[in-house]
Design brief:
The protein has a single domain, classed as STAS domain (Transcription Regulator spoIIAA, 2-Layer Sandwich), CATH 3.30.750.24. Helices cover 37% and strands 34% of the residues. It has three helices and five strands; from the N terminus they run E-E-H-E-H-E-H-E. Helix 1 runs parallel beside helix 2. It starts with a strand and ends with a strand. 26% of the residues are buried.
């Protein structure tokens, strides 16, 4: 479901399957490591994500807050149609940089 890698200035987290309430622990663990990497940019790649619920959206807000405290930018990238629609409904495109 979640994996991550690092480049010179960016931590990238790849999400697959669903991002729902039961994924909270794993999501928090990986993002604690990536947000704590000290890299200035954090990119979430949603190319493998098929579904996100309100708890998943809440996790993204927590991540944004944590990254902001550290001076990091967060980009949401490669979301499919359903996930993009959830971003639009929740106005995440005005909160996050969405590619």
């Amino acid at each position: 479901m979640l994996s991550s890698n690092y480049s010179e200035d960016r931590a990238c987290v790849y999400l697959g399957g669903d991002l729902v309430f039961s994924d909270h622990g794993k999501f928090r663990e990986i993002l604690t490591h990536t947000a704590g990497s000290g890299l200035p940019h954090l990119k979430l790649d949603f190319s493998g994500l098929t579904f996100i619920d309100s708890a998943g959206l809440g996790m993204l807000l927590l991540l944004r807050d944590e990254a902001a405290k550290r001076g990091q930018t967060v980009t949401l990238a490669n979301a499919g149609k359903q996930v993009k629609r959830m971003f639009e409904i929740s106005r995440f495109n005005s909160i996050f940089k969405v590619e």
